[in-house]
Design a protein that fits this description.
The protein is α/β, with parallel strands linked by helices. It has 13 helices and six strands. β2, α2 and β3 form a beta-alpha-beta unit. The mean pLDDT is 94.
């Protein structure tokens, strides 16, 4: 059988982890995590990382392997996964990838542009710029060094703005000139499946999972890394709201409600990304979803 990467994706709280584990167990293969936050150590609750039992059931890669202060990017992820996959295919012609980090999945399936590795000096320089002036300072800088990127940028996404400035300064050329958007050809089959919950049901699952995270100890987990709150790895939903609560700028009830709200906003972005990919096989969530996922995978492989 040809080498095949089965990608179990979809919005947060849709049940990707359980489905991926069940598929991998049936096939007898490993799981490659495609989650940009689960890759860090010490954040199992807030990132909804696989439990110890789930990790024991199927061997996972890229879960809890990096310290919180480690720099990591979609480009590094692409490189690491492309090195790993040939090793996995020696054991099984099928491997499973699971996650909802859009840039990570695109990096592996489509490839991303060759961009420079950001030096510590440049990273600290741009970080200082952001700390001094926030998003306004980033926008002003981009207006000077890469106005073309600024025209199409999400002005509220500080991480993207920061990275665009870093790339421009490191490369000595506008970031926009380096982003070709050309897809790379892969020498393996790609099958994407996603659990397709109606939006109201998905949002209810998000709300209930937020409550479960709080009950599991998210507040204590956030307090344990509070002293590292300046790190990019912690600039994410769940921790930002808990940090605001610890700072005293947000009360506990508001922080919890805001986590659920911001998670729903993130899920909407994931749904929009999925809507633009006609290759995704959408699965109705029911008791037979594993069998139907496997049928869809093998049908897709056999049709090639």
């Amino acid at each position: 059988m040809d080498k095949t990467l089965v990608i179990v994706t979809g919005p947060t709280a849709s049940g990707k982890t359980d489905l991926a584990i069940n598929i991998a167990r049936e096939i007898g293969c490993d799981i490659v995590s495609a989650d940009s936050r689960q890759i860090y150590m010490g954040l199992p609750i807030g990132t909804a990382a696989p439990s110890a039992e789930q990790l024991a059931a199927v061997h996972h890669h890229f879960v809890g392997i990096l310290p919180l202060d480690a720099y990591y990017s979609a480009a590094q992820y692409e490189s690491d996964v492309m090195k790993l996959l040939p090793e996995l295919w020696k054991k099984n012609s099928i491997a499973v990838m699971c996650g909802g980090s859009m840039m990570y999945i695109d990096a592996v399936t489509r490839g991303i542009d060759e961009l420079p590795t950001i030096s510590t000096a440049i990273r600290e320089k741009v970080k200082a710029l952001y700390e001094r002036g926030g998003n306004d300072a980033l926008i002003s800088e981009l207006r000077q060094i890469d106005p073309e990127y600024l025209e199409r940028a999400d002005l509220n996404n500080s991480r993207r703005l920061i990275h665009a400035i870093e790339i421009t300064l490191e490369a000595g050329a506008p970031c926009s000139s380096l982003l070709t958007g050309k897809s790379k050809q892969r020498d393996f089959n790609i099958v994407k499946v996603a659990i397709d919950y109606p939006r109201e049901q998905l949002f209810d699952r998000i709300n209930r999972r937020t409550e479960a995270m709080i009950d599991a100890g998210l507040e204590d987990e956030a307090r344990s890394v509070y002293h590292l709150r300046h790190l990019n790895s912690l600039n994410t939903v769940g921790y930002k709201e808990m940090f605001a609560m610890i700072d005293g700028t947000m009360d506990r009830d508001t922080a919890i409600a805001r986590i659920a709200k911001n998670t729903r906003v993130y899920a909407k972005k994931q749904l929009l990304w999925l809507s633009k990919d006609p290759s995704v096989i959408r699965l109705v969530p029911d008791d037979d979803i594993v069998n139907r996922a496997l049928e869809a995978v093998y049908a897709s492989i056999n049709s090639r």
